[in-house]
Model the fold of this input.
Amino acid sequence: MIKYISIFILCIVPCIFYAQNTYIVTSVNDPVNPASTVSGELRYAIDQANAHPGHDNISFNITGTYSSPISIDLYSSITISDEITIDGNTQSLSGYTGTAPKITLIANPATFSGNNLFYLPNGSDNSVIKNLTFDWRSQYSYAIYIYQANTVTLQGNLFSGAGGFLFLHESNSNIIKANDFSVITDYASCILVIDANSNQIGGSVSGDGNNFHSPILVNYPYIKIYGMNGSADFNKITSNVFSKSSKNIDILNITPPVLPGNQGKSAPTISTSYNGYNTIVTGTSAPNDYIEIYISNSTGQDAINLLTTTTADASGNYVATISGLNISGLQAIYNHNSGIFISATATDISGNTSEFIATEIQVSNCCGPAVAGLTPLFSSSIGAYGEAQSVFCQQQPVEFNFSYNTRVDDPFFGNTTACQIDPLSTITINYGDGTQETHLVSNPTFSHIYTSGKTSPLYYTVTLPGTCYYSWNPKDIFIIDCCCSITGVVDENSPIKDAVINLADLNNIPLSGNTLNADFVVCNSDVIYYSNFSTTVTFDYGDGTSEVKIIDQNTDLLNINHTYPSSSPQNVTYIIDPAYPGCPNVTGGFTSGTPGPCTTGQISYREGNCVDALVNLSVLDCFNPSASYSWAFGDGTFGTGLQVSHAYHGTGNYIITVTISQPGVADIVITKPIVIKACTKVECKDCIGSFQPDPGNYILSAWVREDVTTIPKTYNNPKIKVSFTGVPGPGTLYGTDGTKNKIIEGWQRIEEVIAIPASALDINLELVNLSTSDDVYFDDIRILPVDGQMKTYVYDPVTLRLSATLDENNYATFYEYDEEGKLIRVKKETEKGIMTVQESRESSKKK
Done:
């Protein structure tokens, strides 16, 4: 890392550092008698922290060789009555390679006495419990009971057992995020919230959502909220995953007719349609609601994967475009009985989240009208209904061929010889679409064309001379679009985005230098998949060269990469040949390197806007120079331009609207809500110049290292604690994350998003070392807005030459000089270490 660097700690007024005690757990023992604890036990450490004023830490240093999580059997409940942080990740477990927390707390039903593993009453405000496993098997109580305690954080924990895991009772502003709730036996809701307000369950930042799941169908709702003797308002439940549940969120009102907060928050309406490329989800909710849309199971109750989010407009309408949901051809038929559902929930601007609502999505073939089809053989012998191909193509002849014996058993009379098949025997087939045919057995082949795709109950009868008569029970056959006018779609980036773009609407595929690089997606139709034919796509690059690509059942994404002699716009044409009789070729083209009409856009601005302060607004994802932009700021004033600035002169909620007008295409109207606050500013005598951060989201970045001989995969002891004067709570402890940032040359980066509240007077940074034996080092500490960039420079104190620069990601570039001051080498800090990227030497003859 850099030797010569100044450490800048950003403060709004003077920085304040607070001390705190750390109590180490070194033993897995727990006394049967809670009053007889000894040093090193978890119960002893918590008792000591309870007795010490201020915020304290509990860390783990249990010695021994372990290849699995360390278990601590508790014999009774533990009360946390002071501000305490308990972090299971402080335990070193070199022989363990799993992903579950390293410390497991067990309540054995045979020996455990008490109603909770942890009880947090009034006084435990601001406590943090994270990275622990709670093995809880009680049927009638909850693993953690938080009563009249506020701003408690539960993060990264694994709850496993009987389902009753967390009880929030008259407790407000608690944060429950990134936990895993695994229900083994179904006895209670995972989280019970009674008379509690403003709790955050999940979160809007990636990775903050909780995972609720079970190997069995859970009949209790995963989250149950109601006001029994008071309110249960403003509880925000977002970005969570739910599976195998009859109901995810159950919001009750015990004291009707009052319906405040969560009790009065209605679920949104939801419906789907298909535009040929994507599933379009539309519905209504309260104005400006935040809508989450999930993929669901066949019951429509689960929310097993968050697909997208959107915001209802000022009228309460919302729309979202989702790719990949439409299942084409046979797969849609095979999944039809089980259903493909999506579900949605709404959260208002105050934080109240509704229950879920679900609907079955519309499925159809991803391609256009069928013009050709397969002719599978449908075979059956009289007396045995054959299980042959039962999926056919519309608009194409479907052939049914019946074989027969000269003699057949009569199921009605039990006579094996009375019914002889001869040329006078007939077969009648009912196609299930209102038509039927009758043939002699001497002509047992039927051919029929279905004009539309649907499920048809097919049955047939055999009439023999005399009294013999065979009637076969109906059997469903499926009629689908098997071949199509295959449509090509191209995305301007590689790899392809989730949302594909119709070639007819796209003219802005960029040339990088003079190279065209784009992904080309061809609908992999059922004809391709089931007939073993390969579709070819021939690209003519417009410069006298062409290329043939092949797409089959294993490939539906083609990459085209072509270099031109110049960077001027190029015309590219293509021919798609499905290589199946009756399927026509599809031709088209596009122009690379030139902008075309915008098909979408979004409004961008920084959060945390204040009265009378300029708000900088811009339109993203729209790059058409012919477009014009008309703004309505929601306060009766207007503006024009791709980027505008506007000041609001009153607090409140406003709706920003921008209309994008383009020649030859319909206008695009985009809306986005904005909240304007009073934001009373405090003079900052210790700030650099007049610099004073506005409330909002910022990136905290620093490099840290531990003075240890053996370098671990991640450092657990160096932490940065961030708190705010004027904001209740002990603050948040940030450390390294080995999944995001590796150790490079002995140093590892801390990188987290922090939010500066509007009421903050100071930012207080505390550099924390959790180790009692090893030193830790901090370097390159910086704080910058999430949508900003920072580049810093390091100069040699003697020669004043530039020694290094640090980019927006806090990675360094080093500059080395010879004795004459000429630059001879440039090195770059990367995830793989420091590498030389440029080196030059000059030599001259001595005179």
